[in-house]
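Hi R.,

Here are the chain sequences for the assembly we discussed:
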Amino acid sequence: MDLLGFARGPALKVALIVFCLGVVWRIVGFALLRIRRDWNKPRASVLKYLFGGALTVATRSMPHPEFIARTGPGEALGYSYHLGLFAVVLLFTPHIIFLGSLIGIVWPGLPSGVITVISVLTLTLFLAVLFRRVTNPVMRMLSNFDDYFSWFITMVVLVTGLVATAHVGARYETLLALHILSVDVLLIWFPFGKLMHAFYIFPSRAINGALLARKGATS
Amino acid sequence: MSDAIGVLAANLAPAEEARTPQARVAGAMKGFVQEIGALSAFRLESCIHCGICSDACHFYIATEDPQYTPIWKVEPFKQAYKREASPFAPLFKLFGLKREVTADQLEHWQHLLFDSCNMCGRCSLICPMGIDVAALIEQARHAMFDAGLAPKELYQKAAHQRETGQPEPSAEPYRDQLLAIGVRFGVEIPLDKPEAEVMLCVPRTDIEHYPSAVAALARVVQHLGVSCTFRSDGLVAENYGYYAGGKDWQRDISLRLIEQAIACKAKTLLVPECGHAYTALRWEAADLYGKPLPFQVRHVTEFLADELQADRLKLNKAGTGKTTFHDPCQLVRKGGVIDAPRVLMKAMGIELNELKNHGGFSYCCGGGGGVLDIERAAPLRYRTMENKMREIDDTGADTFLTSCSDCRRTFDDAQSHFKWDKVPHSLLELVAKNLAGPGTRT
Amino acid sequence: MTQGNEALTVGEMLLKHGISRRGFIKYCTAAASAMALPPWMGPAMAEQLRNAPRPSVVYLSFQECTGCLESLTRSFAPTIENLIFNMISLDYNDTLMAAAGDAAEAARDKAMKDNFGKYVLVVDGSVPTGAGGGYCMAGGRSAVDTLREAAKGAAAIVCVGTCSAFGGIPFADPNPTGAWPVTAIVGDKPIINVSGCPPIPEVITGTLLQFVTTGQVPDLDEHRRPKVFFGNTIHDRCYRRPFYDQGKFAKSFDDEGARNGWCLYELGCKGPTTYNACATLKWNGGTSFPIESGHGCLGCSEPGFWDKGSFYSALSAPLWGKAGESTPLRVLEIGAGAVVVGAALGVAAAGSARLRQHRSEQQTDDTKGG
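And here is the predicted structure of the full complex:
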């Protein structure tokens, strides 16, 4: 079996299995811990505070005016590269076909040249983000292996994808194999690191927003 | 670790000094394990190390010291969660991927969790992942308390309050001081009535430092003709168990008030001008009690705003000129009582110049969470107050109001330290001065 | 075929067929240029060929469909290429030779003996080893034995077609006959793989010509294919590449995109991972090639192309075994299985954490007094 066959075949299968298994293990593992009942009387009706939770999902993406002067640039950087990654992953036709073969539905994509431009921009932002993490004293203090490795593996996926599309450095099937292998590694790493925030972000905002709305507190 | 802090020795109550480091760690871990539920686990899981919470925290903003990043304050507990209780805990332990929390770490973290956190909850508003960081800090304090690492000032006051109902001994018991205030200000003090619709309590800060505020409370309820009473066995609004992180002691302290309210068949427990008393009674007491409270808990501003809107209360114009208002964190941001103070101020025709960061986004006075009581925290506290004082000055206000006696005390302390030209005034006292017409209940 | 002509050199043969020296040089120059050899090689090749005694070529066919031979004989400049054919002494080819049976075998054995160490062995079809070699027998001898015997005296072995180069169709899963490529059977001779199913005619003749004139094996890639023909992918030379770059893909055969000649990536074209000269040399004397006719490249010059998933599933699709195994339903099955196991592990983790909590609280209750 050649490297490409391995990457697309057994490696991908194992990666998807570990991904599904790991994600569910992790979420079930903490979601089934104790949930304490709140005995204090809510300020708002159930409907109102569930709505408050839903609202928080949206509003936390936009920093409040009181905070934006301090957090704006950093958050803009973060959201931008996420948008770039989503565009590349979800709107590049070979990726759409790949996902389509897994989930059974496809959707239109962007011209491949546009995706290349977005990829290069995203790569630049991604480098900026590492620079920021390493130079900003708060982030440097907080950061651990998880932060750096998650960045690294995503970067490898991005870079190998660009290199494969550009057909530089080695035979195409080797480059493609490396790209798919790096995705396999990312899928295997996913449940064990901070990439899980993809699953956490909306429920976390919703739950904490709902609990604050229950008190009528600011959220 | 910051050089600015240096190595702080643990600030321990004498009762706690004898504990060995291992006992501390064991205590902390035990307390922590008991705390962890699905919600706190989810919060600890969700942190992506973005550091944005630091941008909400006045301790960080004033000092630019990364250690004051809010989520960093709970770091040993995040570590412990991953190692002990997370879904992959066996893997972490097996491969030695997370170290055990050490006694040194816990001692260092005493400063971060108590001296440099007002439990103000501003960080919970900024986190892009929606984590309620302040809630995690509360739980971390519980674990620190169980490790015997609550700062001595808070520990001792909590212990004394649990025993006697007063955080500190006084020459005269508060009950007597309360009655004396009634005499001094010529206002009736309803005390120990067997039955009343509203049970009153009082901040001991007011008894000791702002007796006029106590009188104002009594005057207002008298004016309104409310059926109410103070109870000698449940007088003090503050809860040092809440500050110290001693959950059981917090419960015991709240129980005093709960039992007295039940005893006098009160339908409402009225929280006076105090912030954390509101949090402890409105949003935490029922959970510690184990079932719903058989009465409502209302802050005095909420209560008065309701009376105003029901036309039972009329107020005169206050004539305070340009005025600004400091929103107590526990009442407004965390408590949800945002509009009531403004309804009262509007009714008094006050020209309100809001602070740049007001309402739910207000900066803490700097004294919350027990920080005002911790002596060694004073220099740090003063640094964080400079920004707040500047905001107040920037409004150009002549009068500055608030509705929490500890905030008031903190600002007074700042006034004396910085030779500031402003002192805060109590909103309740202003209302009491501007009561219009006779009360409608009699 | 070769009776009576053995003594003639190539040049004499050509003259006999009415081909002038000049015409022959022109042909050789064209052939040289097709192989990216320098222009001066043309006349040199012509000279070399004209004066050379015709080299002996033994062409063995094993598990093959005869498609490669059909391709080789479908030349579009018949006179010249047939003459090239006549310029080699094709001493054995069981399809083309007139003789059969013992006479044919005798001719082969004689040619191999007379030209021992000098003949070019051309092989098409894979070699079965199952049932003691019994799946391919000719003249009472198995293919394996015939190949091994013939390889002994060969100057070089040219494997024509994917079957002899890589195993091809017989080698595909489940490979019931135990088929193997030539390289798995013979190890100690120079081997050139001219893969394709079938290979392009000019690629076969060009490779043969180069070896015959220079006596040297050309530059080969990692699969031992001449780089001059197999150095680029179809994708790199495809005329539809601009559509790939613009993201214009045909979604089904005969849809608007297909009729507009858009890229066939979504319809399973394996161009990006297939090395061959189809996009440049094309077929039928430069008429067309599969993509130009509207069908995606099958990847037929690559090892294992039959076992690399459906011809109609895109390169970016997963490949978990036999074609049709990586369907959404299968993915769902595997995913569901993983989810169930994960959930069980999660329940175990939460359960053990809650147990610890419970124990810890009981302990606290016990040690607490009033």
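Chain A is about 75% helix and 0% strand. Chain A touches chain B through 62 residues (CB under 8 Å).

Let me know if anything looks off.

Best,
T.
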